[in-house]
Design goal:
There is one protein chain. With 194 residues, this protein is α/β, with parallel strands linked by helices. It has one domain: Dihydrofolate Reductase, subunit A (3-Layer(aba) Sandwich), CATH 3.40.430.10. Helix content is 32%, strand content 26%. The protein contains five helices and eight strands, in the order βαβααββαβαβββ. The chain is globular.
């Protein structure tokens, strides 16, 4: 059975975004080592799950990198291959409100989250990765659907914000598989549910 992996940027004080959704606190001066780590993680997947609220920004960001990669920006050129991968990998957007969309390589999941995710896990293929947003990831956590947590802990504290663990109503335990440190200050903790 395929695994569902969560890759999530998180502040040292446990937030995944500011209260208004801003992500300006994230560390992006990544070196080749952390880029390789993320690349290797994505080599193990062939499906991306997203919540509806995050999808527009996610897809438009990566489409912009793909479309503008010939421009002189070193950053755009360096991120082209990864951006192309993000566009080319099939995506499933969980929504209750959309019936149609115009996103490339994307289908909608409108049913019960547990049934939809378990159906995806039973399909043949590589593993599945989820990015968010916060409410969607909280629902996955509360339904025990995530098999591997890759929490990218940024060297920033923001005081208040959105969390993926806000709906946990009882004790929630994770087992640390391995911790990785990178020169940019990010620590990636790989956990599995206990």
């Amino acid at each position: 059975m395929r695994k569902l992996k969560l890759q999530m940027q998180i502040s040292v004080d446990g937030f995944v975004a500011r209260q208004d959704g801003a992500l300006d606190w994230m560390t992006w001066d990544w070196d080749d080592e952390i880029k390789k780590y993320v690349g290797d993680l994505h080599d193990s997947i062939d499906t991306i799950l997203l919540g509806r609220k995050m999808t527009e920004g996610f897809i438009s960001h990566w489409m912009s990198v793909v479309e503008k990669h010939d421009e002189s920006s070193k950053e755009l050129k360096e991120n082209y291959e990864f951006a192309k991968k993000m566009i080319d990998i099939p995506k499933v957007v969980f929504t209750k409100s959309l019936d149609t969309h115009n996103w490339v390589n994307t289908e909608l999941a409108k049913g019960n989250i547990v049934d939809e995710v378990n159906q995806l896990k039973k399909q043949n293929g590589k593993d599945i990765i989820v990015y968010g947003g916060a409410g969607f990831v909280s629902s996955l956590i509360n339904n025990n659907l995530i098999d591997d947590y890759y929490l990218f802990i940024n060297p920033s504290a923001i005081g208040k914000g959105m969390t993926i663990f806000s709906e946990v109503t009882d004790h929630f335990s994770l087992k640390l598989v391995k911790s990785y440190t990178f020169d940019c200050g990010i620590v990636v903790n790989h956990y599995t549910p206990k």
